[in-house]
Structure formats: C-alpha cells, structure tokens
From TrEMBL:
Residues 4-61 form the HTH lysR-type domain. This is Hydrogen peroxide-inducible genes activator. It comes from the Bacteria. CDD domains: PBP2_OxyR. Transmembrane segments: none annotated. PANTHER family: TRANSCRIPTIONAL DUAL REGULATOR HCAR-RELATED, TRANSCRIPTIONAL REGULATOR OF OXIDATIVE STRESS OXYR. The keyword Cell division does not apply. Keywords: DNA-binding, Transcription, Transcription regulation.
Length: 301
C-alpha cells in the first residue's frame, strides 16, 4: 500500500485552515501549482475527492473533513516524535508554541519573558493569544505545545503545573465607594452595576463562581472586551468590576480614579497554570518551563 506523505497532509491542512489555495501555498512556502498538484496526487492515491474546487469557494467534502481531522493527528504525532528526540538532547531549546489567554498575557508576560530569554537563549518561543476555549482547542489539535491558562477551566485531557494563585479584587470609582473594609463581601456587590467581560473569557465565570451569587450571572452587565475596557468604564462611573491581582500589579489602575479592594470569599482567586496534553512526550520539558516561569514571576513581584 502506498501511503500519503506528510507533505501532502501538510498541504491539506493548510488549505483547510486558510480556505484559499494561494494563502495555503504561501503558508507552506510553495507555489500554488505545487500545492494543488500535491493535493490532486493525494486524492488520486486515496481514490476519493476531498475538496470541491470552484472559482470562488473551496469546500471540503464530508470525507475530506474526516481525512483532515486524521491528518491533524498524524502530523501532530510526527511533530511530537521529532520534538521528543530534540528535547532529549537539549531541553527548552528550539521552537515552542505557547498559548496565553488575554487576561494573563499583557500582565504576566512582560514580567517573565526577559528572565526566560536569559536562562534559555536557545528557546524560540512563539506566542499566540487566544481565549481559553480557542487555546484549548488549538492545544488538542497540536497547533500549540502548551498554554498559560487560568483554572478552573475544562481543557480536555491535560496535565497542569500550577504557578501561583491570583486573587480577585473589587474595583470601583473612588467617588462611588462599595461597602466593606478592608475586604469587600460578595453581598456588597450591586448586580445592576456589575461590569464583566463578554462571553468567551473564563475570568467572567471564575469571578462569578467566587462570588457565589447565582443572580449575578443573570443581572451583570457583560460589556467589556478586555480588562482595560472595564477599568475605563469604572473610571467613568459606569459601574464596578472585578480584577485579578496580576492586572493590579501591572499598573492597570495607574492614571485612573479607580480603587480596588480584595474580594472577601472562600475561593476568591484563580490558579495560573501551564497546561499541556497528557500524551505529550515533552512533559518533563514543560515542567522545567513551568518552574522557570514560577521563578521569574516570584523574582519580579
């Protein structure tokens, strides 16, 4: 039996990701004719049509979708084979694709990347900022090697290394104080004025869970696309919000009239963790990375 080549599967995946022959060819660093020819050879080899070609639309057949799903897994296994050999020679060197969620990336990465570069100069880090759901999907498909994630969050079959706890704070305008001193109890939060991130950000669910007030989920005004947006809303007296400590440490309130006090609740924090696929052969390498991130974070506080 003649089997498909990895190159043919790469072409197929690139077309699936980009939905356009020209862009897929650019992503593979080949000409469009080379990519198209490789895909036709794959279809001939399999004896089936995988892609419907028209002038305007690239559409995968139902069989093509199933083949693409398997192609992702095959390439992922091939990449992990090569990475396992490389990692055994020199850990934390070469390429590493790291996903980071938006409520961590701008506040945590500037603190730790300089130390990471200094300790591991041969590490070529590719960063990708994604919401939790998209990052976990990319991790499962092998598009990412590991993810900096806030837990709890369901991310499939993963192994985790918790770096530290990140406490929640209630943020409000200084002219619109909230009851509670020095900590703010959940009961003092006015659900009609609570501003949270829009759906898709795990921080929203984590702070609501910490407050343990079911009515907040229904009443909260979910408006913000980022923590910076929420702070600007609060600074303009549009309501109050909840922020993680790492954002406060990074100076997110600088230049505003917003005050933040700790949330008084049993689980008023999220766990910042590095997670990776349990099946990954680079587990020990990722544990080393987690330890390096933990050290860099502690030294920068």
């Amino acid at each position: 039996m003649i089997l498909p080549t990895l190159k043919q599967l790469q072409y197929l995946i690139a077309l699936h990701q980009h939905g356009h022959f020209g862009r897929a060819a650019d992503a593979c660093f080949v000409t469009q004719s080379t990519l198209s020819s490789g895909l036709r050879e794959l279809e001939t080899l399999l004896g089936a049509t995988l892609v419907e070609r028209t002038r305007r639309v690239v559409r995968f057949t139902p069989l093509g979708e199933r083949v693409v799903a398997k192609a992702y897994r095959v390439l992922h296994e091939a990449e992990e084979l090569a990475e396992a050999v490389r990692a055994s020679a020199k850990p934390l060197s070469g390429e590493l694709r790291l996903g980071v969620i938006p409520t961590i990336a701008p506040f945590f990465l500037p603190r730790v990347l300089p130390t990471l570069r200094r300790e591991y100069p041969d590490l070529k880090l590719y960063l990708r900022e994604e919401t939790s759901g998209m990052a976990c999907e990319a991790l499962a498909r092998g598009l990412l090697d590991c993810v900096l994630l806030a837990l709890p969050y369901g991310c499939g079959d993963i192994t985790k290394a918790v770096l530290f706890e990140d406490s929640f704070y209630v943020a409000f305008h200084k002219e619109e104080p909230v009851e509670g001193e020095p900590n703010v109890p959940p009961a003092a939060i006015d659900e009609a004025r609570l501003l949270l991130l829009e759906d898709g950000h795990c921080l929203k669910d984590q702070v609501l869970s910490a407050c343990n007030r079911p009515e907040l989920r229904a009443e909260a005004a979910i408006l913000g696309t980022s923590l910076h947006t929420l702070v600007q809303m609060v600074d303009n007296k549009l309501g109050l919000t909840l922020l993680p400590k790492m954002a406060l440490d990074a100076g997110i309130l600088n230049g505003t009239d917003v005050i933040a006090r700790p949330l008084e609740a049993q689980h008023a924090y999220r766990d910042i963790a590095l997670v990776w696929r349990t099946s990954s052969p680079r587990g020990e390498e990722f544990r080393m990375l987690a330890q390096a991130l933990e050290r860099a974070s502690a030294s920068s506080r």
